[in-house]
Structure formats: structure tokens, C-alpha cells
TrEMBL record:
Single Gene Ontology BP annotation: sodium ion transport
Transmembrane segments: 27-47, 59-76, 91-110, 122-142, 172-193, 255-273, 279-297, 341-359, 379-398, 410-435, 447-467
Protein name, per record: Sodium:proton antiporter NhaD
Domain Citrate transporter-like: from-to ranges: 42-417
One GO CC annotation: membrane
Secretion signal span: 1-17
Gene Ontology molecular function: antiporter activity
Membrane topology: Multi-pass membrane protein
Gene: nhaD
Family: Belongs to the NhaD Na(+)/H(+) (TC 2.A.62) antiporter family.
Origin: domain of life: Bacteria
PANTHER family referenced in this protein's UniProt entry, alphabetically: SODIUM/PROTON ANTIPORTER 1-RELATED, SODIUM_PROTON ANTIPORTER 1-RELATED
InterPro entries cross-referenced by the UniProt entry: Cit_transptr-like_dom, NhaD-like
Record has Transport as a keyword: yes
Length: 472
């Protein structure tokens, strides 16, 4: 027997064949190596801002290494099927989420390309709201847009408004960014489309689409408690007025309508025909492609009409844009999808799946959900989401499949969704805004308000357990 073979089978060529693969690998060098690889990879993920190393790179490498170790170890015990079956299961789960998110990101990028978000930003800036009013407007908009457009996109949009109107007030930008991160994460917690974690819960079938709305009030409490306290630090004076109106490109409103139709298609197909939601989303991509075809064949006629309007209204900015206008191509918004996030998610799903195959998830599930009580475990899951990121945490919980009441599944959905707000690195929205508002919004500026955000976290849990007591 080779040295590798002795190592891979636990240094014991006489290991009992009856001993299960899982039990053999939990306290086995292969298991320890896999766990170490994942931890090291995640340290690199958490240091993304400092190292400027995209988070997908370490987890992609870790995923491959873990599964090569696991499959090799299983093969040396004579088991050539179970690892492959487990990997295929993980790949199927990932492929459904990949295609779902790709369609959603394509629609969001198409709206951005049609200048829908620019028009919204220009409108807000032009109204002459005070800093305090803008603090509340951007927060409330983030809370209500994120359930549809996802928390990351929403946070970036609202941050662009803050950067535009608050350029003379660094303190306002910093507090406004914290407010937006909390609002976007809270808003994303009561919708399957608001965050990857809620999407995973819906795809798994443990919470139905309409049941997510039971978390609306707890999510609102999670946002409002810290927002009310922080608002006392915002001056009630108007910023410098600036910005001219932005004219949306042809098809902007129709893109929004088709996105809503796409969501409706996915929800109806999933709820009534029990089809994977991704089938409805991919059908919705066809809606956008047909709109793109219409915009392309009618491009010259549409540009001519817009040119007449711009000349009549003396809109020089629109005239300049029309001089360089090109037909809409649906594959351009698709190419601009956040591929780093999509590949990061692939790495996370396979890393956690590999650790689950080894048996670590069952051990953690035993500790959290059997040795502890489910409520305490789900609260801890939310706290971990602020440190580790909610995607691997929620995927691990779903992989464990603990035996919980419906109220507890809603609780872990809530805590995983809003727990990341307690630290700036705890959510994609926070990490993105640290880059977009560099120098204004930092980890330390967010940390100063962490106790207030934690108060909102506790209040949202108490609200959920009171309002939805019948589900526990």
C-alpha cells in the first residue's frame, strides 16, 4: 500500500469495512485537511478589501481541493459512488440558483443600462430634500426596493444618491451608508428575491412564497430601531442643490414591467405547478430578449422620435447621448452580471457540501439543534452571519435539515438575512459600500453603531416570536 493510500485511509489498512465513510472521515486527517482548507480560504475572503483579491478565487480553489481529497479518500475505501452522487446533488442545487440569479442580475443591469436608476437618483437630488429627509428617503427606498432588486443592487443605487448629495458632509455619507446597509438587508429578509439566503430557503421548499411576508413587520422593526436612533445625529439642513434631469432610454418602463411579469411567472409556476422557480425565471429571460429584438428593429425610428423631443426641449445632454446611441443587446447586461459573486457562490456550495459529506454538518447540527434549543441556535446563526457571511451559514443550515417548527425556519431566515448588518463585512451590501464610499464608510465607522444595530436585531427576533407565536 502506498504512503498516500495509508494516509487517505486513516493510517490503518485494517480499518473495518463496516465503518461508514462519514464516521471514518470526521476524525480523520482528510477531514481535518478539508476543514483547514475551508478556513484558510475564508480568511482570504474576509481580507478581500485589504488584499484586493476577489473572493471567488480562494473558494474555487478550496472547493476543488476538498472534493479531490474527499473523492480520493472514499475511493480508497472502495466507495466510488457516494462522493460522486453527493457532488452531483450540490451541482444541481447550484445550477438552479446560478440560472435564477443570472436572470435577475440581467434584468437589473438592463434597467441600469436604460438609465432607470440614474433617473431616480437625479429626481431625488433635484427635489432639494434636507439631509435628514434624504436619510429617511434612501433608507425607506432601500427597504422596499431590495425585496425586488436584491439588497446589493439596492445598496449601491442608494449609496450613489448619498455620494451625490452629501459630498460636502462626510458624516452624513457615513451614517447614510450604515442606514442603507441595515435597510437593504432588512428589506431583503422578507422576500425570496431580496437575498441569496432567502432564495435558497424558498428553493429548498421549507418556506412558501407568501409565508415570507410574515417577516415584514420583524424586518421593519430591525430597520426602524437603529434608523430612529441614528437619525438624531443627522442635521436637518438642505445640501447643495445640483444635477439636471436624466431621461430614461426607450424600453426602461417596459423592462420593469417584464421583470415583474418574470417574478410572477416564477412564483406561479413554483407555487401551483411545483416547477423549480428557475424555469419561470428563464422564461422571463425570453421576455427580455423579445423586448430587445423589438428595440433593435425599431431603433432608428425610436431615436428619430427622441431627437425631435430633445430638440424641442433644447436638451443638449440627450442629443449628445443620441449621437452615440447603439441598439439594445440583452447579452450586454448578461455579461455585466456579478460573476465574482456567482463563482463565489459555486465555491461555497461545493465547500460546504464537501464538509457535509465528511460529516461535519451533522456534528454541528447535533450541537446546535439537539444539545441546544432551536431558538438559541437560530439566533447564533444570525450572529455568525455577521462574521462569516450569511451564504455559507444558511447553506449549512439547509444542508443539516434540522427538525424545526415553521416558526423556527422563519426565524433562521430572518436572523441570517439581517444578522450581517451588525458588521460592515457581514453582508455583500456592506462590503460593496465600503468600496463605493471609500474613506466615508469604513469598518470602524460601522462598528461604532453596532450596539444600536444589535438592538434592532434583538427587537426583530422578539417581534417575530410574538407576532408568529402560533407557528412555533
Amino acid at each position: 500500500m502506498s504512503l498516500f493510500a495509508i494516509f487517505i485511509t486513516g493510517f490503518s489498512p485494517f480499518a473495518s469495512a463496516a465503518e461508514s465513510t462519514v464516521q471514518r472521515f470526521i476524525h480523520h486527517p482528510v477531514g481535518y485537511m478539508a476543514l483547514t482548507i475551508f478556513v484558510i480560504a475564508y480568511v482570504f475572503v474576509m481580507l478581500e478589501e485589504k488584499l484586493h483579491l476577489r473572493k471567488s478565487k480562494p473558494v474555487l480553489l478550496a472547493a476543488g481541493l476538498i472534493w479531490f481529497l474527499v473523492a480520493g479518500a472514499a475511493a480508497m475505501t472502495g466507495d466510488t459512488e457516494s462522493a460522486n452522487a453527493a457532488l452531483q446533488h450540490n451541482l444541481l442545487e447550484y445550477s438552479e440558483l446560478l440560472l435564477f440569479l443570472l436572470v435577475a442580475m440581467t434584468y437589473i443591469n438592463a434597467m441600469e443600462e436604460r438609465q432607470l436608476f440614474d433617473a431616480l437618483r437625479a429626481w431625488l437630488v433635484s427635489k432639494g430634500f434636507s439631509y435628514l429627509s434624504l436619510f429617511w428617503i434612501t433608507g425607506v427606498l432601500a427597504f422596499f426596493i431590495s425585496p425586488i432588486a436584491d439588497n446589493l443592487t439596492t445598496a449601491l443605487l442608494m449609496c450613489a444618491v448619498l455620494m451625490k448629495v452629501g459630498e460636502n458632509s462626510p458624516r452624513f455619507i457615513g451614517l447614510g451608508c450604515i442606514n442603507i446597509v441595515v435597510a437593504a438587508n432588512a428589506g431583503g429578509a422578507f422576500s425570496p428575491f431580496g437575498d441569496i439566503t432567502t432564495l435558497m430557503v424558498w428553493q429548498k421548499g421549507v418556506v412558501e412564497f407568501t409565508e415570507f411576508f410574515r417577516l415584514f413587520v420583524p424586518s421593519a422593526v430591525n430597520y426602524l430601531v437603529p434608523a430612529i436612533i441614528m437619525s438624531f445625529a443627522i442635521p436637518n439642513v438642505p445640501p447643495k442643490k445640483a444635477s439636471e434631469p436624466v431621461v430614461m432610454k426607450r424600453g426602461a418602463r417596459r423592462t420593469v414591467a417584464l421583470f415583474l411579469l418574470t417574478i410572477t411567472t416564477a412564483v406561479l409556476g413554483h407555487n401551483f405547478l411545483h416547477l423549480p422557480a428557475v424555469v419561470g425565471m428563464m422564461m422571463g429571460l425570453a421576455y427580455l430578449q423579445f423586448l430587445g429584438y423589438y428595440l433593435r428593429v425599431s431603433f432608428k425610428r425610436g431615436v428619430a422620435r427622441e431627437r425631435v423631443w430633445a430638440e424641442n426641449h433644447k436638451n443638449t445632454r440627450l442629443l449628445k447621448r443620441l449621437d452615440t446611441a447603439v441598439p439594445f443587446d440583452v447579452f450586454n447586461p448578461m455579461a455585466r452580471a456579478e460573476w465574482d459573486t456567482l463563482l463565489f457562490f459555486y465555491g461555497i456550495v461545493l465547500c460546504v457540501g464537501g464538509l457535509g459529506y465528511i460529516g461535519y454538518l451533522s456534528e454541528v447540527s447535533q450541537l446546535l439543534y439537539n444539545d441546544w434549543n432551536a431558538t438559541g441556535a437560530n439566533i447564533v446563526v444570525g450572529v455568525l452571519s455577521a462574521i462569516v457571511d450569511n451564504i455559507p451559514v444558511m447553506f449549512a443550515v439547509l444542508s443539516m435539515e434540522p427538525d424545526m417548527s415553521h416558526g423556527q425556519w422563519l426565524l433562521v431566515t430572518l436572523t441570517a438575512g439581517v444578522g450581517g448588518s451588525m458588521l460592515s463585512v457581514g453582508s455583500a451590501a456592506g462590503v460593496a459600500l465600503m468600496g463605493q464610499a471609500r474613506g466615508y464608510y469604513t469598518m470602524m465607522s460601522h462598528l461604532r453603531w453596532a450596539p444600536v444595530i444589535a438592538l434592532g436585531y434583538a427587537a426583530s427576533i422578539a417581534t417575530h416570536m410574538w407576532l408568529n407565536a402560533s407557528l412555533f
